[in-house]
């Protein structure tokens, strides 16, 4: 194919990936902040003397960041999310951004924080997030609130179904409360109890995340066990580093989903595949943080070929300058998946959502309608 036609074909494929309805299961609230917002908030913190703005300005403006620069921004995110208004703003914008690229179902994960100086408790932090979700106007946000659910007609309308400008898009949003690996057993238990308390307000699961070289599995196990006993779905960041003892413990614990699974050995791969725990695949994130040597050598291919349940996710779309549409484009461009395979991949993710059966039914309907538009006979061809 001549270069010009190749560029045009790539552009068309990117547009198709945006039009594809998508399910996002692994997105951290803090890591998904828009660059423009990050810049504005960093400037404000700089003016107050909390940080040196010039130190972070260039890193924020960059599109491709080194692992070291990513960690620098991680620290900044933590400073930013210490007041309620900022948390609310970020939550609102993150949902708007995902909805704008046709994500029809979004699970956002975030670590509830206590910050006595700002009058912030774990509950008030999550309430600030929920306030942000409710403030979204550009799109109808359906939280998994039991009250909302009874009034909900479940007639989702993603962008691709719209036939006039008056109709609004709809996005289903659920919250996962993250246990940070730095936390104590008691703090982790508080998070699980909070998830239980807020289960009718949009909280639908528990996540274990944070710096993978910090903390011990035994510290979080009582909280994870407690969540399991309460029937709260759990997802765990697994194998970001080759911690044999912990990877084995996670696989034995058998959560509903795992994220990443970068550093598994042959035996662990075998076990993961035999127990078929769905995997949240974060291509760009894994390559940028060194969990995978390159896109081409990412373990996506092995799991996909083994027909292992998996779902493409962004992890931290702001931090890694990606989007869910881009992740779909990358698997097409790197591994040669056809449009029908991409469509199937997106649709299969519905099975692994933590929401209830009614939401799943509604999502399946969305994909059915979208299939007619996106999978015209001519579209079944492979991308090149
Ligand atoms: Zn993550």
From TrEMBL:
Catalysis: reaction(s): N(6)-methyl-AMP + H2O + H(+) = IMP + methylamine
Domain Adenosine deaminase as annotated: residue spans: 21-364
UniProt keyword annotation of Transmembrane present: no
GO molecular function: adenosine deaminase activity; metal ion binding
Domain of life: Eukaryota
Keyword DNA-binding part of the UniProt annotation: no
InterPro entries, per the entry: A_deaminase_dom, Ado/ade_deaminase, Metal_Hydrolase
Pfam families named among the record's database cross-references: A_deaminase (PF00962)
Cofactor requirements of the protein: Zn(2+)
CDD domains recorded: ADA_AMPD
Assigned keywords, A-Z: Hydrolase, Metal-binding, Nucleotide metabolism, Zinc
A GO BP entry: nucleotide metabolic process
Entry's family note: Belongs to the metallo-dependent hydrolases superfamily. Adenosine and AMP deaminases family.
Annotated protein name in UniProt: Adenosine deaminase domain-containing protein
């Amino acid at each position: 194919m001549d270069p010009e036609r190749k560029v045009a074909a790539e552009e068309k494929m990117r547009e198709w990936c945006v039009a594809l309805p998508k399910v996002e299961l692994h997105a951290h609230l803090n890591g998904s902040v828009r660059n423009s917002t990050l810049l504005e908030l960093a400037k404000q913190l700089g003016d107050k003397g909390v940080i040196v703005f010039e130190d972070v300005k260039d890193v924020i403006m960059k599109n491709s960041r080194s692992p070291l620069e990513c960690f620098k921004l991680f620290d900044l995110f933590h400073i930013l999310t210490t007041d309620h208004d900022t948390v609310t703003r970020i939550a609102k914008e993150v949902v708007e951004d995902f909805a704008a690229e046709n994500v029809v179902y979004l699970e956002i994960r975030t670590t509830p924080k206590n910050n006595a100086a700002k009058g912030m408790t774990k509950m008030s932090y999550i309430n600030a997030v929920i306030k942000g979700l409710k403030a979204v106007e550009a799109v109808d946000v359906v939280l998994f609130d039991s009250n909302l659910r009874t009034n909900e007609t479940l007639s989702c309308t993603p962008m691709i179904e719209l036939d006039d400008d008056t109709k609004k898009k709809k996005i289903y949003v659920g919250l996962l409360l993250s246990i940070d690996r730095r936390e104590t057993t008691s703090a982790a238990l508080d998070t699980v109890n909070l998830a239980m308390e807020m289960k009718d307000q949009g909280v639908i699961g528990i996540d274990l995340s944070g710096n993978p070289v910090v903390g011990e599995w035994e510290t979080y196990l009582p909280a994870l066990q407690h969540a399991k006993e309460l029937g709260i779905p759990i997802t765990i960041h697994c194998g970001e580093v080759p911690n044999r003892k912990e990877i084995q413990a996670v696989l034995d614990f058998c959560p509903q989903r795992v994220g990443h699974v970068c550093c598994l050995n042959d035996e662990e791969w075998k076990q993961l595949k035999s127990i078929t725990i769905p995997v949240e695949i974060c291509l760009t994130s894994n390559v940028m943080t060194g969990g995978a040597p390159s896109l081409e050598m990412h373990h996506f291919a092995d799991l996909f070929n083994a027909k292992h349940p998996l779902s493409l996710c962004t992890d931290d779309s702001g931090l890694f300058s990606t989007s869910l549409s881009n992740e779909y484009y990358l698997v097409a461009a790197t591994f040669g998946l056809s449009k029908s395979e991409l469509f199937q991949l997106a649709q299969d993710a519905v099975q692994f959502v933590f929401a209830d059966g009614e939401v799943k039914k509604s999502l399946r309907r969305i994909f059915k309608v979208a299939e007619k538009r996106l999978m015209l006979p001519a579209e079944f061809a492979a991308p090149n």
